[in-house]
Amino acid sequence: MIRSDLVVRGRRVVRAGSVGPAAVHARDGRIVAVTPWNEVPSGVAVVDAGERFLTAGFVDAHVHVNEPGRTDWEGYASATAAAAAGGVTTIVDMPLNGRPPLTEPGAGRARVRALAGVARVDVALWGGVVSADPSALPGLAAFGVAGVKCFLCPSGVEEFPHVDEPALDAALPVLRALGLPLLAHAESPAVLGRAEQALPAGADPRAYATWLASRPAAAEAEAVETLVRLCRRHRAHVHVVHVSGRETLALVAAAKAEGLPVTAETCPHYLAFAAEEIADGATAFKCAPPLRERAHREALRSALDDGTLDLVASDHSPCPPAMKDLAGGDFRKAWGGIAGLQLLLPATLTFARPPAAEPCDVARWLAEAPARLAGLAGRKGTLAPGCDADFAIWSEEGRTVSAGGLFHRHPVTPWAGRRLAGTIHQTWLRGRLVYDAERGFPDHPHGRFLAVSRRPAEPAPN
User: Fold this and answer.
1) Within 10 A of 323 (CB to CB), how many other CB atoms are there?
2) What is the pTM of this model?
């Protein structure tokens, strides 16, 4: 007999690569069984999703929360409210924007204190690599980071310097031994420098073409070539974040075909927007790498289909409106980041494979694969016994994005006014309702810090 205290069921439950009727049984916040739709014990609370889709709660593996230190940009209370409203039950916070950056365990403990009592969803943390000295990495692993992030070009944050190939050459064997992945912002500073020098004198900083020319796709490709070379040398897991260019896709595909542990992600904004459509002065669209031409967008969509790209993450990176220079429209001055955490599902559903992606693909890109990347497989990302009872109940019903309906701290986003398919109706975290489209947030915050424990890898082959 199944002993459960909650059953969430529906006619369109997405699990194990299929969609169909099922009942998901939970006890004490964990899934204990998945049965046919009509197998429900008497006396147990039942939530019926009906004809709406029921998936595991989504995992956003690329979020910039910025707390402590830059909480006026974003914070755990506002970011996790946006996550819950978007069906995201776990975020993985990037290390660089908080003060101090998460490059040692003390900074991690400060973030755990900051999120306690205010986080509406669960939070895991990425650490950072900022020097050629890898001695801090074992301490970060013991603290419970999900992996470490680096920049191959200046990050835009003074406290988080970029690293070069010798620094990564020192870090990767240590990371491999610890079982931690390396996440990399891949743009070559040499290529960026040449592109900057090649800009014509007096290039209009309000022109989107100026910003695009300053960050060519070749910069991403050259940096990924370096990462693949290092991955081949050390057989350490390398993950390329926010892929924007089609040249990069061939490099990632070739590395995978070679059997190297290389994975990659893109973001909804790279799947949706194209450079040809961005007006001069429209700095809400500024991000790095930049939004590229339609040919790149179409290549990214195809790469999701064929598995070259593993997942989609928001790269939610908000800032105070003044830092976007919305009035002046200067792309050179504006902060580079797009706010989209709450819209991860509808934006991906709409633009990954227009007019709408398949629910099984959405579950793979937004839940299963990011949970695996973050070391949370078996706990998050799937509707299976032993996993947390995290659920997103959603439909393909379309809505126009209103900035006033977004819960992140500053409602500046290029998604405002866009018609997107996909509406989140309810979000459940560990068996508790944390968001309802009609009632908002019915409970006090009870998100937790998720310390990740990785299994050390076998020694690399000589």
Assistant:
1) 17
2) 0.97
The total of structural domains in the chain comes to: 1
In a domain, 137, yes or no: yes
The residues that bridge with 239 in the sheet, in sequence order, are 183, 263
Residues in CB range of 151: below 8 A, 6 or more apart: 96, 160, 161, 162, 163, 184, 185
b/e per residue 207-223 (b: at least 16 CB within 10 A): ebebbbbbbbbbbbbbb
Give the closest residue to 434 by CA, choosing from 393, 380, 399: 393
* Residue 439 belongs to some domain of the structure: no
Task: Give the CATH number of the domain where residue 248 resides.
Answer: 3.20.20.140
User: Do the Cβ atoms of 245 and 221 come closer than 8 Å?
Assistant: yes
> pLDDT tens for residues 146-203?
999 999 999 999 999 999 999 999 999 999 999 999 999 999 999 999 999 999 999 9
| Secondary structure class of 55 (helix, strand, coil) | strand
Please indicate, yes or no, if residue 453 is contained in any of the structural domains.
no
178 assigned to some structural domain: yes
Q: How far apart are CA 418 and CA 319, in angstroms?
A: 21
Q: What residues contact residue 321 under an 8 Å CB cut-off, 6+ apart?
A: 410, 412
Look up the domain containing 107 and give its range: 57-380+407-413
By CB atoms closer than 10 A (0-12, 13-18, 19+), residue 145 is: buried
